[in-house]
Amino acid sequence: MSKKYKSKKIIVARQYQILALILVVLAGGLVLLPKQTRSEGVSPLVFVKQAVSSERYISTDQLADRIINQDPTLLLVDTRSKEEYDDFTLPNAINIPLEKFFDEEFNGFLNQDVYDVVLYSNDNFYANEVWMLGNRLDYKNLYVLSGGLNEWFNTIIDPQKPKETDSQKEFELYSFRKAAGMYFGVGVPKTEAKAKIKAEKKPAKKVITVKKKKKRVPEGGC
Amino acid sequence: MKELERTKRVSISAVLFLLVVVIAVLTFKKPEYVFEKSAEETLEKIVEKDYIISQNDLEQMVVTDYEIIDIRSNYEYAKGHLDGAINISAINALEKESGSFLKELGDTGKKAILYGEHPDEANSAWMLLYQLGYENAMVLCIETSFVNNQFQVKDVNLEKPTVNYAKVLKSLMDKEPTVVKEKKKPKKVITAPKKKKRVPEGGC
Are B202 and A217 in contact, with CB atoms under 8 Å apart? Predict the structure, then answer.
């Protein structure tokens, strides 16, 4: 009885030995596998698809509308240098120069899914590069201001008056841009300034009438 | 009986294990395209900006040293393109033919000069190629358009502000208040002559 048991034990052990041997051989095979560079972020196919699409662009009119309506999900990111940012930038924008893309203090702004981050520079170029890096790392909610600050100045700050033959839409867009420009600090349009001056003249007239009342008193005395 | 069952179980599990391994090996597919450069490396290269060339730079290069690649769509390419340009649209950049073509270019040491409708487009394509490991690509800094049946090329100044933003905005802000101030002065003049009128009236 004891002999039988012993022999069976050995048989079972042999089976395990074979299995173990197979595993060892397979594990050895892993060493022979070609070395593969592990790449972070999305696959090249996804990268191309997103890079080719123009979904990332947001127009200056859309952006102005969102700023004026105080959209709480909007986050403006200036991708130009510190000097340019100090000189002029959009209201409440933060400065993340292109070369500081990987700085840890800025990572929280770029890699998140709460805000819609609108990137801009003087034109599209830097903003696009930041966007492409974000695209590579699969950051969500990144947008690019179409035309950048140059376009911003041409449309919102100093819009071109449409021709008389242009459609109603053009005129509506123009008045929207004019109004938006006032929000961003451009002076009151001339026509309105004139209206204000007229309004100021009226109280002056009132002063004159008051003085006339005084005249009546001495007249009565006579 | 019990021992028989045990051996069966062992052999069944062993067979299953081997089956899994075989299936895994058979279905394993190496991804065709892998990014070779990390995002950090790409950023370093981007900041240098030495891969962007103007038309003048291109003219100074030896013609046999480069191949011009038009990354716009076939349709746009058919309408008009730079002399000697080859069309590889950005969407097809990952197809086998274009991949092998670019590899050949790289092996022969030739540069691939990319251009599109705007440098932005070419730059996107460049970033793709660079990250895939093609280091011989360059971006031609031009804007192309098709106007009046003619293919037109224009040099672009990248990231150049069209106006001095701060100055222009300040001038636009200052303009209106000065106008208002100037018109306030004549009001005082008007009130002054009316005072004179009072004197003769009082005398009466």
Answer: no
How far is A194 from B183, CA to CA, in rounded Å?
A: 10
Domain boundaries in chain B?
39-155
Residue in B33, B124, B168 closest to A51 by CB? B124
Residue A59: CATH number of its domain = 3.40.250.10
What is the span of the domain harbouring residue A29?
1-36
A124 belongs to a structural domain: yes
Per the CB < 8 Å rule, is B123 touching A125?
A: yes
What is the spatial order of strands in the sheet that B137-140 belongs to?
Answer: B52-53, B137-140, B111-115, B66-70, B86-87
Please state, in angstroms and rounded to a whole number, the distance separating the CA atoms of residues A76 and B33: 34
Of B17, B169, B179, the CB nearest to A185: B169
Q: Does some domain include residue A58?
A: yes
**Predicted confidence (pLDDT) per residue in A122-131, tens digit:** 988 999 999 9
What is the ipTM for the molecules in this complex? Answer: 0.74
Number of H helices, E strands in chain B: 7, 7
| pLDDT digit string (tens) for chain B, length 204 residues | 666 677 788 788 878 988 998 998 888 877 778 888 888 889 999 888 889 999 898 889 888 889 999 999 999 999 999 988 999 988 888 888 888 888 888 888 888 999 999 999 999 999 999 998 888 899 999 999 999 888 999 888 888 888 888 888 888 877 654 444 445 555 655 565 555 556 566 555
**Tokens 């839409």 belong to residue:** A169
Q: Same structural domain for residues A94 and A151?
A: yes
What's the CATH number for B39-155? Answer: 3.40.250.10
A186 touches B at CB < 8 Å: yes
Domain count, chain A: 2
Are A91 and A135 members of one domain? yes
